[in-house]
Each structure stands twice: as C-alpha cells, then as structure tokens.
Amino acid sequence: MKKWQKNTLVTIGIILSVAAAACLYLLATPYKLVNQESMQSTESVIVKEDRGWISFFPTEESEETGVIFYPGGRVEAAAYAPIAKMVAEEGVPFIIAKMPLHLAVLNPDKADKVIKEFEDREWVIAGHSLGGAMAARYVKNNPEKVTGLILMAAYPPEADDLSAFKGDVITIEGQLDGVIDEIALTEGDARLPSQTYTIIIQGGNHSQFGDYGLQKGDNKAQISKEEQWKRVVQGIVRSF
Question: What is the pLDDT of residue 19?
C-alpha cells in the first residue's frame, strides 16, 4: 500500500473515531431535571429510585391503574418527575422507566419488567416524543398487557398500526411544539383507534412536558411550565 493511501485510511479512521465519540458524548449527556425538589418524597407521595426506574406511589393505599412512562430521546428519566409526582398526588401510581443511553428505542419492552414487578396492578403505558413512539410500539406488540396508551407529543411509528387496539388512547400535544414533525404526526394519528381522544395544550410546547429547559429546535411556550404540567396531568388522570 502506498504511503498516501495509508495516510488517507488513517485520516478516515480518525474522522470516524471523532464522530463516534461525539455521538456517544451527546447520547451520554442528556437533558437533565432542573428542579430536584420534585424527586423528594412528601406526605402524599413516596418517591423511590433504583437502577431500572423511578417510582411515584401515593402514600395511601391505591388500587388505581398505574402509569408506566417512557422518557423522550436524550432526556433523563428524572426530568419527568414533576408530572409523575402530580399524577401520584391524584392517587395514581406513576413509574418512569430508565432507558439505555436515554433512548427508549434501545429497550422498547422495558415495561415488561415493571409489569412483572407489580403484577397485581393494571397499567397504562405512556411516553413523550421518542418515548411515546416506543410506548406505541409496545402496545402494538403487547396489546393484552396494558389497558391504555397516552402519547405526549408523539405518534405511532409507521410500522405500528394500532387501529385494532381496544384500550383507550389519549394524545396530548403542545400548540407551539417546534420539535415534532407535523406531517408525520397527522399520518401517525391515522394509525390510532377510533376511541382516541386528543388534547391540545394552548400555548404549550414540546419541552415543557418535562422539566429540562428548552429543547433545541423547540418554540418558546406562552404558558408557564407549571401550567403545562397541570394540563398534562389533567389529561392523564381523566383516562382513569
């Protein structure tokens, strides 16, 4: 091999290594929870964190159907603690699944572990953005394991037609969402069952489904994050 060919291969190798390192860095540095207070237990909610998930259970015994939640892409699980805690305050258990590299697409069946751990309870699966897409995929592959689906700024992937799903489906969207693909959202809605109920949060955006700041590409919301969380929680609780 000629010297210039060797140099070219070395250069290509360096470029690929740098690109791979950059990708891993981005994946390993997610959007993080802003206010840690929402991760603290209170008189009404017990918060527990382990390697697999973060659970928010009402302190009073509850037989309510629980929520298993898949986070958005590159967003840490804890960033959704505010809505989880608010839902639990309404008597509904809420479990946020932790995902490999903060990407639900790497473990779309994570809900199986939660269901096995708490097999005495029925569950609704929910998710935000990429997490919502993977929650929809879970429903497609396991329709008998959950009683409903909640999509937050999300839609079913092209290969996952849920029109035959018998459970209730709620979609919650932010009016000013600057991240979601509107054409793909419209096409995705056609893959949902007839008993789907849609909630549009006026003044809400993509990022304020959690508490991790303004996501790249998103529009600034015209309502506070606390107001958006309140409306999201109302949408979740109404499904029970």
Answer: 33
